[in-house]
Amino acid sequence: MIGNALLKLDYLSILEINGKGSSELLQGQITADMGKVSNTNSVIGAICDIKGRAVSSFVVCKGSSADDNFLLIGNSASIEVAREILNKYKPFYDTEMSFASTTYIYGIDKETLIKNFPDTELSKTFQNYGDAFRVHYLDKQYHLLLSKKRLEENVLNLEESQALWLIDDINNLNMEITQEISGEFTPHELGYPSTARIDFEKGCYTGQEIVARMHYRAKKLPTVLLKNSSRKYEIGTKIQSGEDKLIGIVLTRARSGDGYSYLLSMNKSYEDQSFIF
Question: What is the pTM (predicted TM-score) of this model?
Fold first, then answer.
């Protein structure tokens, strides 16, 4: 039994991909390198459209010890987009896809994790415990705990869980694709190169040429910025410089203490100057 409080992350979904062609299918479509996914390592990735804009984001891990079993875990709407796109290419590969409806997703902090799973090896970003397994990425406070059993006790409500998970994302400059922003931003505008969600050493994927051209040829690239404020600003609020020049936009927001934490997308006109919302 889990001793401390867990985050309830029912708004996340899992797409399970099985078959000998699964790795090849994913390698040709996602921004992460499937060669780095193993029984001890997970990766974060995305799917882009032909214009090089991010339409889905997720973490990729093994579903079991089998070489041809993988999971994509992310926002439910984002995972549905991934399924629709991958389904177009599925007839060309020996693979099957389905939603893992019998696996429950929680967030668990390091202290609680080690207390309840003493054989945890934090150097591994993926670890299978038998009835549950753990996924970790970036330097997030919370790990993902995927359990075959629903845990009823010591679980925070969905609203509080989602807020804590979002704060953790913002603190790590991690912007996940939601239904509202799917196809609206390039990976660079979401900070994906800095979080290694884009692997520039792997082969082609949809939109790769545009993403790579921007990365290597642009004189200045967009960036993401963490900003704390006592005031509440809406997602999508435009950010201007002191000279009234548009230099960014609010990507996401979460309540933090007496104020709010924001993740901002700053365009190439931003020069580390002061700004106003």
Answer: 0.93
Torsion angles phi and psi, residue 93, rounded to 5: -130, 155
Q: Could you tell me if 224 and 134 lie in one domain?
A: no
Return the biggest CA–CA distance within the chain.
Answer: 58
Low-confidence ranges of the chain (pLDDT < 50): none
Cα–Cα distance, 59 to 188 (Å, whole number): 18
- Is residue 205 assigned to a domain? no
> What gap in Å lies between CA 153 and CA 159, rounded to an integer?
16
The DSSP code sequence of 166-204 is HHHHHHTT-----TTTTTTS-TGGGTTTTTT-S-TTS--
Using an 8 Å Cβ cutoff, are 59 and 75 in contact? no
Gap between the Cα atoms of 104 and 152, Å rounded: 11
**What pLDDT, in 10s, does the model give residues 104-163?**
999 999 999 999 999 999 999 999 998 899 999 999 999 999 999 998 888 999 999 999
Which of 140, 171, 202 represents a domain boundary (last residue)? 171
Residue 259 lies in a domain: yes
Distance CA 49, CA 230 (A): 37
| Full domain range(s) for residue 29 | 7-171
